[in-house]
Amino acid sequence: MDIAGDDAQRFLVNSNEALEFRLIRCPEDLEDEDTPFGAEMSHQVFGENETIFGYQGLSVKLYYTAGRLTAYLNVDYKEKADPDHFEGVEADDIPKILAEKLQHGFLTNLDTFVASLSKEAEFVPHGELINSFRCGRDGEELSTYEVYFCDTSNSKFLKYHERLQTFILWYIDGSSYIDTDDANWRFFVCFEKYKMDGKTMFAIAGYATVYQYYAYPKNIRPRISQVLVLPPFQNQGIGANLLRTIYNHYVGMDEVLDITVEDPSQEFQYLRDYVDCQNMLKLSSYQPNMLKKGFCEEMVRDARSKFKINKRQARRVYEILRLKVTNRKDEEEYKQYRLSVKRRLNTPFQKEQKMVIKLKNVLAEDELKATEQLKSREQRLENLDRQYKELEDEYQHVIERLAASLS
């Protein structure tokens, strides 16, 4: 069947636009216009094109109670495609598709879901409380947040995690559910702590997963895998506090070599840079007088010993902080900074050139042609300039956030 036909197009729906999420604390939240939030992506559930076939006026409501994460699903539409008009092709079975991703037992009756809210007051986060902090958006009252640490030995938490992890499908690209049979996983879960009718309540705000890799001979290298702050809680500093909590959990452990990050998104890299810069500014080796002398082994040692930051990230933080203290109106000072960064960026190219020289002594002429794809000097300089400008833009983003945090 030609789904691209005009008639079929009327029944193709953008799945991102059709989805509506809510974290429900009380029945009034069901009607509150400020409560809904949408999906940033849906291709991991509804396919690469992020479309649902077979409906007009489609609304897919996926609600959770704010603490226990009891789920409710409702699919509503104005019109459903008749298979007889589309060569027998049925409309997408949305409940079936979502059932493959959601924990078994999600609710489809709204009254039953509302009744389940009475159990929210009984909910207490699983695991060990390891941090508490207050934060909020500019101009708003500060809220209290708590971070709980869990591992895979906590069976009650693992049941809870089955519900919690469903959020990553809509907000973390390339995500997948983790294998909780692997005992190396660690979890850091953040809740807002609030009062309702005189009772202490908890609402999920975000979480992070960390995998503890073995490092020879008897060390570990924790790798941050997934970090998610849910949309209603974004842009108020929770992500930075969650990352600091992870750091603080590991920095005192002698067996930890350093903390790495698995394939960070641009947004998470900004967050990591911001927190790392704040930490490194506390070190004498990262003060302005030292930064202008250039990157050195003392910086590498301090970053690893004090904050478990690896050499590559330490170099990046050095470049951000050196740019911060560089007088860009001073032509020579600014030039020296740019050359320092470009020399680092050019290192892989220099290694390639050395390899080509070695290959010339061992390869036949036709085999050597494969190496001719290396860029000319002019192309390389142009590429270096582009890389540098992109990097400076990234660094400036972090510098501006650092300045805002001090104002």
Automatic annotation (TrEMBL):
Cell location: Nucleus
InterPro entries on file: Acyl_CoA_acyltransferase, GNAT_dom, HAT1_C, Hat1_N, Hat1_N_sf, Hist_AcTrfase_B-typ_cat-su, Hist_AcTrfase_HAT1_C
Catalytic activity: L-lysyl-[protein] + acetyl-CoA = N(6)-acetyl-L-lysyl-[protein] + CoA + H(+)
Domain Histone acetyl transferase HAT1 N-terminal, first and last residues per copy: 12-173
Active site positions, chain numbering: E262
One cellular component term from this protein's GO annotations in UniProt: chromosome, telomeric region
One example of a Gene Ontology biological process annotation: DNA repair
Region annotated Interaction with histone H4 N-terminus, chain positions: 48-50, 211-213
Top EC class for this record: transferase
Entry keyword set: Acyltransferase, Coiled coil, DNA damage, DNA repair, Nucleus, Transferase
GO-annotated molecular function: histone acetyltransferase activity; histone binding
Domain of life: Eukaryota
Coiled-coil regions listed: 367-401
Entry similarity comment: Belongs to the HAT1 family.
Protein's name in the database: Histone acetyltransferase type B catalytic subunit
Species of provenance: Megalurothrips usitatus (bean blossom thrips)
